[in-house]
């Protein structure tokens, strides 16, 4: 049997920090083009896409016979009965239905798991140097390079979340991955993700992010980054309230791939993360055989440089919720399962204000990562590819050096965080870290020392 072609290109400059996001251009028919690929624009739209004219049925979803001998298959992202405003599903017209595969068997792949459940809680401030890269001579693909850092809850209960990191130096040749457990928000840190999905192809580079929903097969090449996986919820744009109709992440800047298929017979392995464990099944053809699709349940990506920042232009440090790109709700209004928040380059103009983040204790858990540059509240020690975790009610804030310089800095308008991008996964759940997070070699045991020397400056009036 012919082998499927290698789908993913290897990025030329995989570990290059200076990578710029390629320009997006109008491509006609409501599409845009970037880096040789075409995309739909918009968030949560009903899209329709066909790689062969006439492949998409008109006026119905399940014709007795689909055009060109295709099979119709629905992918449901929400219960059939969810209200229209929340209902998510897509119809896929494919060469074979997804069910044509051998039995799933459990596989042991490194460090992606749910082992936070075996660990005790730890209220300490935690920081990690950049997570380890594959060792010299080791060939690691995306599935093998996934490691879970922290999590809470349980995919079986459709409630909770996990934080993973990935580091891989090999393409997923003739194999693909999907999660049955949760939507994955992927934040590349090094290298461009060349992602093949059942819906089409996406390139996602440093300073862009993407969301791959439950059950969408992906095949990814060499790269390093962070992932937040959410069980039982989907990401949505935050409400803007008094900000008005525009600002923050604007819907039109979200890009969704267009249909692209391969008709390839050959050995293929499908990895499926199911109830926290990895399974794999063999099949004799490429799963990227969707010729046409329509619906509102499809992967998308977003360039963080397009985030329209809103902030105080008078005084006081605002809460970081003003920088929310995407949020995944809980049933309690305003309470997020996770907010994806960024700390983008921006003007800082506040008068008579201590400008860096304030000292605080938060009823939410804050996991932070650094895509590039440095983070404004930490003078050193928090490097791109590293992370911090400040758990629920764990006190934290600027380190001593940052406090001292910001307390006496001249307050002129200035651009801050230029060339940097830090982000936060902020969750209402109590996160626990995994054994891997403690043993991967990146944990900084002395992190707490950054607040040492925050001396007493108290000078009460003399009586
Ligand atoms: O802890 C952090 O560094 C994140 C953060 C930033 C900020 O500007 C305000 C609150 C907050 O938790
Ligand atoms: Fe914080």
Automatic annotation (TrEMBL):
Name the needed cofactors. Answer: Fe cation
Recorded hits in CDD domains, A to Z, give: cupin_HGO_N
- Which keywords does UniProt give here? Dioxygenase, Iron, Metal-binding, Oxidoreductase, Phenylalanine catabolism, Tyrosine catabolism
The EC designation for this entry is: 1.13.11.5
**Domain Homogentisate 1,2-dioxygenase C-terminal stretches:** 306-458
A cellular component annotation (GO) from this entry: cytoplasm
Residues annotated to bind Fe cation = 360, 366, 396
Superkingdom, according to UniProt?
A: Eukaryota
**Kind of enzyme, top EC level?**
oxidoreductase
Q: Which residues bind homogentisate?
A: 375, 396
Q: What residue stretches are annotated with the Homogentisate 1,2-dioxygenase N-terminal domain?
A: 38-304
* Pfam families named in the record: HgmA_C, HgmA_N
Keyword Iron part of the UniProt annotation: yes
Q: Indicate yes or no for the key word Oxidoreductase.
A: yes
Against SUPFAM superfamilies, the record matches this protein to: RmlC-like cupins
Which BP terms from GO are recorded? L-phenylalanine catabolic process; L-tyrosine catabolic process
User: Pathway, per Swiss-Prot/TrEMBL?
Assistant: Amino-acid degradation; L-phenylalanine degradation; acetoacetate and fumarate from L-phenylalanine: step 4/6
MF (Gene Ontology):
homogentisate 1,2-dioxygenase activity; metal ion binding
> What residues sit in the active site?
317 (proton acceptor)
Sequence similarity:
Belongs to the homogentisate dioxygenase family.
Q: Which PANTHER family match?
A: HOMOGENTISATE 1,2-DIOXYGENASE
Q: What is this protein called?
A: Homogentisate 1,2-dioxygenase
